[in-house]
Design brief:
- Helix content is 34%, strand content 21%.
- It is of the alpha+beta class and 432 residues long.
- The chain is elongated, with a radius of gyration of 24 Å.
- 46% of the residues are buried.
């Protein structure tokens, strides 16, 4: 088949499957699959997907928990401290006939929690479609795009399209909260390919590069009480507040020299973002004790660029905090404690001459009649498992939407249809 006819086939098949695609996406959103460390509640959604895929002809299916995979706990990329009871990966393979180029579409089924509450436009797991948007936790990140990849597999199966290379579609557990063990498990089980496409919410940008990052907890102890008995007290909130205030300056400082070894981030003005997300001190119960707390803490997430190591990040943050303490000794009776809360999500970048990048860009242009934006992803994710540990070129390419990890999360319905067309057309060309 000629390329033009393949494009027409992809367009027609996806248009004919549009209703099925949206039903699947909405259904997946309606099944909660929250990741609340160290546990996860992905099983119901994964069971639904497994049963859905079982109905397809010519598909090899696998269903396994990360901890069942031999050698995973000894792998350097394995993150300790997670519980994997009832947390299965689902992997579907359409085997190629001649061992040609292969592709894997990898999505995670887990979501962050439904918080913060309340939601206004919809309930957290409504799966409501309104004004061209699919609402609900995980709609944008990333169940909508997962449904698009499943639909590609269904179209190929239903229409008995035989590929020369393997097509792999997977739904993994435990990506949120800096997980990635679900992704690691599939790689160790042998589900690998010549290119991996992760439909994370990239706003339709093609991203052969990804930021890294890590969550830290900075805590400061004090001497609690009220001082009514004449005892010496020390309020840790003052010192910690000063550090928290200066995180704003820390972000400005690191963006003056952002360590830009990356081709894809050179034009970004502030590539290294810092998110201060939690702050706590004292008795938080209503009507609780009045008194100076014994400890205060906050947590932050810090982005890094390709080429930036975990050791470099640890050293950078500790030096910044140490300098604040040195200049304000009267506020610190003790040294602040800096601990890593999550694993380091490694940044990565694919060689810009990689064939898959160009092929995906040509596919995008053929389907949309527009030039694609090729840049680096604005977030960190599990893509480093593919790229850094298994040498699989990894491209992030997903839909537009909004409010990821927030109230009224949504994904654009038109993008789910568009992704299915692009992914199908790419698979037909790449695997044939």
């Amino acid at each position: 088949m000629q390329s033009d006819s393949l494009l027409g086939i992809a367009d027609r098949y996806v248009e004919d499957s549009k209703s099925d695609l949206l039903k699947l996406a909405s259904k997946l959103v309606r099944i909660p699959s929250e990741n609340i460390m160290p546990y996860g509640y992905e099983k119901e959604a994964q069971d639904y997907l497994y049963d859905y895929l079982k109905k397809l002809d010519g598909i090899e299916l696998d269903y396994f928990t990360p901890i069942e995979v031999e050698g995973i706990e000894n792998h350097p990329a394995y993150r300790q401290g997670r519980n994997y009871k009832d947390r299965p990966n689902v992997v579907a393979v359409r085997k190629g006939s001649r061992g040609n180029r292969s592709v894997i579409f990898s999505s995670h089924i887990d979501t962050v929690s439904q918080k913060p509450l309340p939601w206004i436009e919809s309930k957290p797991f409504s799966g409501k479609i309104s004004d061209g948007k699919l609402y609900g936790r995980g709609a944008f990140d990333m169940k909508g795009a997962l449904a698009s990849t499943i639909m590609v597999l269904k179209i190929i199966s239903d229409n008995k399209i035989f590929l020369k290379g393997d097509l792999i579609v997977e739904s993994v557990v435990d990506e949120e909260n800096a997980g990635s063990n679900g992704t690691l498990a599939s790689r160790l089980k042998g589900y690998n390919a010549d290119v991996a496409i992760l439909p994370e919410p990239s706003l339709l940008d093609i991203c052969p590069a990804c930021k890294g990052g890590k969550v830290y907890r900075i805590s400061l102890k004090g001497r609690a009480g009220t001082g009514y008995g004449g005892e010496l007290i020390s309020n840790p909130v003052y010192g910690l507040s000063l550090i928290a205030y200066n995180i704003f300056n820390y972000e400005k400082m690191i963006n003056k020299n952002p360590h830009l070894e990356s081709f894809y981030y050179k034009e970004e003005k502030n590539p290294r973002t810092v998110i201060l997300d939690k702050v706590q001190a004292g008795d938080l119960d209503v009507g609780g004790n009045i008194g100076i707390p014994s400890e205060a803490w906050f947590s932050i997430f810090i982005n890094t660029m390709p080429g930036f190591t975990e050791e470099m990040l640890d050293k950078e943050l500790k030096a910044f905090v140490k300098n604040i303490v040195k200049k304000n000794k009267d506020l610190f009776t003790e040294e602040p404690e800096i601990t890593g809360v999550t694993r380091y999500l490694w940044p990565f970048e694919v060689d810009r001459n990689n064939t898959a990048i160009n092929e995906l860009a040509l596919t995008y242009k053929a389907v949309t009649k527009e030039e694609p934006v090729i840049t680096g992803a604005k977030f960190a994710c599990d893509g480093f498992i593919f790229n850094n540990y298994f040498s699989i070129p990894t491209i992030i390419f997903g839909p537009r939407g909004g409010n990821a990890h927030a109230q009224d999360e949504y994904v654009l319905v038109e993008d789910l249809v568009l992704l299915a067309k692009i992914f199908l057309y790419f698979s037909l060309k790449w695997c044939n």
